[in-house]
């Protein structure tokens, strides 16, 4: 079975790493936030390793943590990811380019245009990670006094998706005739005016861009709450999962597939890729020691800040050595918060222990030799806990080099990962069909052929 | 005098050319709208010719013209310019990158982030062309039933500019300490929370991006109406002018300088670059014949559509051989409309003649040999009609090649244009100072130095 099903690998990136202590690790580039040349080298290495996609995290505000934590965090500043991925499109030819964009604080016409443009520029490699934006401080940067209600954000997201995909279908693939002799550039009968009027959005269209190379850029979603799973099962091509144990991963995988069947979707039309933090060593002990060294670089003030940010509630005033008290409901992202509260209860963790986990990385981690890591990834694939992973490198460039130079060859040796790209588009890498144009179904693939 | 003052040259681009007939010209690339490789070659040629900037036009809707005209227009579809310029940033090292973005239909936090990102990625080459969006159909793509009032758009634009530049100043240039030993990434005393609460916008900040390389990306404006001139005199670094005669150009130039003095600005802090359509030939006659050939490729339906679009009013039902009737006031861009009405009255032009002008190009044009063209440009520079031009190539790639291969060397021979870039940023190309940080004036240039 393993020979027919292979892993899909995305790289989930922040320029310095997602780990709060990474900028202090020996050999790290603390200034990578604005070091375009360094990021270009990272993506070139990932493309040479045949990764499916390069995936940029994003925040629409400085992270909402106390200033004593914030001042220790390299995450305070970085490139806007869509701009960065557009720049990287010109430096690569095969790897997918997935950018986060919010349905809560942006306009569907803008989002549809940008991702369609990136898909044309990259010749079919764009992906849109739909988020509803959990950071409540973001609302304050966009004219609101407080954050929009969690469920209301998902209602808007669902309609937003319909509008964006409808705009992508504005032109049939065969609309552009370019008949020089007769001066006819396109056939207006092959253009659709969307004229959307919904409860949240009113958008006339058509989009002023030809249909994307992939039909629609790949739709990625990470929401793990009930409305998040519902939205993903109905609309996503890729789920950015967050389960930290194989048992939880298998339950999530089965749940999403069940929900897809309910919507009449074939479960093979979605790829579930949990986040995985990977630390490589010559021995398992060495790998664990490297991780411990990295974690030791997280200042307590920084850990408590990350914990507050992930909970959506400032916990810096509580006793570090006491338990996590009951904290009030907020409108921040629910699933991350619930995972922390569950872990705190189950393992009787103190605030200090929770802070250490939050500042380092508390989710799924593969820490060991290339063989140990490949064993773990293979188990998740075979047991249907996932279709691959969004790999997070503990520090850069070293952690990325370790993965590319040592883990990827081991996965290839086992037949678990491609040695060459077979297709050219991100949908082809992921084994996903090109969606039909809802307004011009018969024109499909005429241009692509 | 001419030896000390030199021309600044921007290339005002659409992928197929701004001319409606250009896609039918022999040797043109009718599919250039989505031909990234072709556009990359264009910018590489312009950079080799030492152009100050590459400037992308934009529209937030399919142009509002009757479908019989629209179907003949290559402008119906193209890349979103910011995405395209970001991709081109990776392919170039010196030329400036100016993208249009609307203050009417976007959020200042997004605009500030994107242009700051492009400025970091390109190492100081970003420019923002502030527009208030004249196309009334754009409003329908962003949730509105009708277009926002012209003056209200300028009120919002002025406040929007304050917010964006304030967000760019969120961090002092020396804020980022990156003290690895002590785990201190930045000095929070060197971060400013904007906390803007104005009549149109409420934005907390700070921006989650270090100050741009240029301090602020170059601010470009094209509005020629009274509120547009006012906004430009107060805030712009570059004005994209539209005067079509030297007399009008000189009056505009003097008017802007007068308005700047009223605001206490040194007039040398602004560069006025009118749009100029340039057709090169071996003789003046040949150049005129080439232009006539190009204009002949504009279908009447297309010309009448362009005219309607420029007037913001559908004139396709009027007698083609009659005069332009009185048309009602609209909320579309005023200055373009007024120029057309004035020309119609002054020269007794029929609708058909106006359509031919609108579909080709009715503004300032230099049509002749390289010497004739250089004479014209020199006259505008010396007579203070402009500080250079935003050159529009009649067709691509041929018209661009003609300019780069033949006109640029003639300008260089006369000492009117650089032979090498002297600086690295767009501000340096234009001879413009790096703005001080309004919140941390003393930190200026510490990082840049």
UniProtKB/TrEMBL annotation, chains A, B:
Residues 23-387 form the Luciferase-like domain. Gene3D superfamilies: Luciferase-like domain. Keywords: Flavoprotein, FMN, Monooxygenase, Oxidoreductase. The keyword Chloroplast does not apply. GO terms for molecular function: monooxygenase activity; oxidoreductase activity, acting on paired donors, with incorporation or reduction of molecular oxygen. FMN binds at residues 58, 100, 150, 154, 225. The keyword RNA-binding does not apply. It comes from the Bacteria. Belongs to the NtaA/SnaA/DszA monooxygenase family. PANTHER family: ALKANESULFONATE MONOOXYGENASE-RELATED, C2H2 FINGER DOMAIN TRANSCRIPTION FACTOR (EUROFUNG)-RELATED. This is LLM class flavin-dependent oxidoreductase.
């Amino acid at each position: 079975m393993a020979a027919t099903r292979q892993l899909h690998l995305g790289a989930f990136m922040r320029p310095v790493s997602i780990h709060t202590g990474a900028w202090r690790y020996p050999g790290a580039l603390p200034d990578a936030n604005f070091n375009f040349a360094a990021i270009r080298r990272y993506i070139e290495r990932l493309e040479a390793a045949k990764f499916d996609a390069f995936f940029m995290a994003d925040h629409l505000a400085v992270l909402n943590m106390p200033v004593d934590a914030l001042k220790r965090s390299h995450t305070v500043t970085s490139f806007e990811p869509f701009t960065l991925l557009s720049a990287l499109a010109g430096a690569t030819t095969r790897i997918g380019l997935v950018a986060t964009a919010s349905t809560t604080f942006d306009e569907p016409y803008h989002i549809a245009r940008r991702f369609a443009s990136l898909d044309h520029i990259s010749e079919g490699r764009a992906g849109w990670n739909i988020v509803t934006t959990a950071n409540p401080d973001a609302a304050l940067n966009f004219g609101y006094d407080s954050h929009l209600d969690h469920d209301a954000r998902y209602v808007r997201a669902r309609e937003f998706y319909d509008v964006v995909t409808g705009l992508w279908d504005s032109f049939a693939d065969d609309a552009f005739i370019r008949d020089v002799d007769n001066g006819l550039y396109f056939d207006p009968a092959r253009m659709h005016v969307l004229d959307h009027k919904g409860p949240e959005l009113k958008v006339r269209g058509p989009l002023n861009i030809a249909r994307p190379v992939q039909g629609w850029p790949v739709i990625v979603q990470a929401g793990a709450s009930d409305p998040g799973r519902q939205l993903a099962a109905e609309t996503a091509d890729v789920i950015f999962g967050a389960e930290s144990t194989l048992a939880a991963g298998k339950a999530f995988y089965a749940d999403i597939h069940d929900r897809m069947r309910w919507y009449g979707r074939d479960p093979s039309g979605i790829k579930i890729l949990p986040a995985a933090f990977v630390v490589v060593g010559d021995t398992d002990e060495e790998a664990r020691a490297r991780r411990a060294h990295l974690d030791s670089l997280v200042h307590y003030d920084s850990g408590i800040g990350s914990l507050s940010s992930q909970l959506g509630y400032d916990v810096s005033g509580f006793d570090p050595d006491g338990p996590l008290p009951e904290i009030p409901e907020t409108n921040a992202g629910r699933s991350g918060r619930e995972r922390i509260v569950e872990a705190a209860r189950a393992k009787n963790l103190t605030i200090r222990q929770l802070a250490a986990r939050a500042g380092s990385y508390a989710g799924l981690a593969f820490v060991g030799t290339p063989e140990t890591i490949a064993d773990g990834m293979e188990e998740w694939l075979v047991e249907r806990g996932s279709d691959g992973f969004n790999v997070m490198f503990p520090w850069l460039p070293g952690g990325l080099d370790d993965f590319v130079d040592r883990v990827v060859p081991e996965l290839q040796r086992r037949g678990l990962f491609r040695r060459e790209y077979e297709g050219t588009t991100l949908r082809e890498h992921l084994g996903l069909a090109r969606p039909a144009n809802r307004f011009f179904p018969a024109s499909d693939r005429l241009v692509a052929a």
